[in-house]
Write the structure tokens for this entry.
Amino acid sequence: MSAYDYSRKEFAAVFAELQKTYQIYGPKRFAGRGRFSDTDLIRYAPLASLDELELAEKSSLSPKSLVFPADETIFHFNDHEFSQPQLKENGEIIVLLRPCDINGIARLDKMFLENGDQADPYYQRRRQRLHFFMIECRESFENCFCVSMKSNTTDNYEVALRFAGDRVAAQVKDHRYAGLFGQKGRAGSFSPEFVSGNDKQVELPTVETMPAEMFNHKMWEEYDSRCIACGRCNTSCVTCSCFSTVDLFYADSRQCGERRRVWDGCHLDGFSDMAGGHSFRKNKGERMRFKTFHKIYDFRKRFGFDMCVGCGRCDDVCPEYISFSSCINKLSRTLKGGSDK
Amino acid sequence: MSGNPYQPFPVKITKIVSESDVEFTMTVDASLDMVPGQFFQISLPKIGEAPISISNYGKNWLQFTIRAVGRLTGAIQNLRVGENLFIRGPYGHGFPVEKLANSDLIIVAGGSGVAPVRPLISQIVAGTLPVKSLKLITGFKSKESILFTEDIQAWEQKCDMTLTIDKPQEGWTGDTGLVTEHIRRLKLDLPDNYQVIVVGPPVMMKFATAEFRLLGIPVENIWVSFERLMSCGLGKCGHCKIDSTYICVDGPVMNLSHAATLID
Ligand code: SF4
Ligand code: SF4
Ligand code: FES
């Protein structure tokens, strides 16, 4: 393990050097593309240079699209032959991301690589190209509650970076980068610090088994009317991993088509519809309950840690100002027999 | 990506039998290892995929009983003998065959729930899965909705069988009433000795399993099979999750002690 210091200009040269071998992804600002016409959208995209790296604000979409795109062709059909599309580019990728998102991808790994005892090949082929460069995150953004979720720290990275004004510091854990990082910088002593407190805190339920009465408790009813089932909380979430499969055929040739998988979400209508018409969780409150239990209760029963990493994106994007952190706290209070107000 | 688990393979359709106005049984050529109670994802390229339980199988054939209620199942109904169906599987946990062997077994199945237990019953009446005794209760809405008529006639010869329809109907001389009423009438001296399987619509399973509990059958001896929207069959897509259980990989057959804790 080694550490280096740079001026921003020196580090830009390291960045450019890395780009000869790797594609570098990070949070990038797209002006005027946000939820409202005058706002910007920040999402993960290839960075042309260090200057494109957006650090001032949280990205509204998570890096999960790098491993699990919103819409992906899994087969092409030609008559009745199936063929699997190759990835257009197959090079290695450096992704610049914060601790919560590194932990978020570790949760996706559980689902896509381990659950059901078979790895998902589409996820795996994208996942194995990624190298995590952690962006040190010492100050919380709005709505973050990573500390409560214990996802504010990680050592799952090859390089950690501190961006402080005109200075950049790097901790290099993987020796493959040592030469390149050493050439342009001065030896330093940087080791990353982590957020130690957020404005938002949640109290997690401690029950081993959720009491049956909590499933249709009246605390969920407020979401029946408040939630509009837009599914933004699901799409913005780094750990939401549900998808549906759809088949398409091309208009010009009924012989050819493709099978795609697209993001789906438990808040959306139709998520639990069965052929023949039966559907579970018709009310939005039931969907909120389903998501909440998954994120902070039943995922833990299966995998040993909570699914939610407290990135707060669901709260950032909800058009109805529904706060997930408040919901978690309300649940814990209710479980303790307190007021559900 | 060799061994891609999402990749279906073609199987040739060798026989199609109509079971009712909307249900049909399709036999395909396939020699695969499977257990009664498991399911396959069946698909037609360009139309889609759906989970269908195995309604019977042999050394080199496999059957699916399908309700033509949607776009995909409607299109499958239009296929002809000699054409291909696309399948992947088998998936999930089937019935606990080792526990059922040499047991006193009671099977209760309602409507399309008869399909998943049919391979099990076939093996029992054929003697390949020996049991001490078998009591079978099958229930259907009406006489028109009875499935597997030929099998049922054969089963009647080989085991203690009740075939009931929900309400009396003109031209029907057999049993009537919900399966729960028939469960209530069972005379079981040593309830601890029985293994019980219940498969059918959610409401039926709820009340039928409750009746068995009243008869004194231990919860560990009761097995149910869950129908859920399943999409990937591999524990990835999330559609079938209830609590921390993924029906596609942890089920569809589950012990009641676990199933009873699952709330949608
Ligand atoms: S549930 Fe909300 S806070 Fe938790 S990981 Fe998902 S988006 Fe982030
Ligand atoms: S973002 Fe808000 S309104 Fe939209 S589905 Fe989620 S909770 Fe409901
Ligand atoms: S059907 Fe996809 S996870 Fe079970």
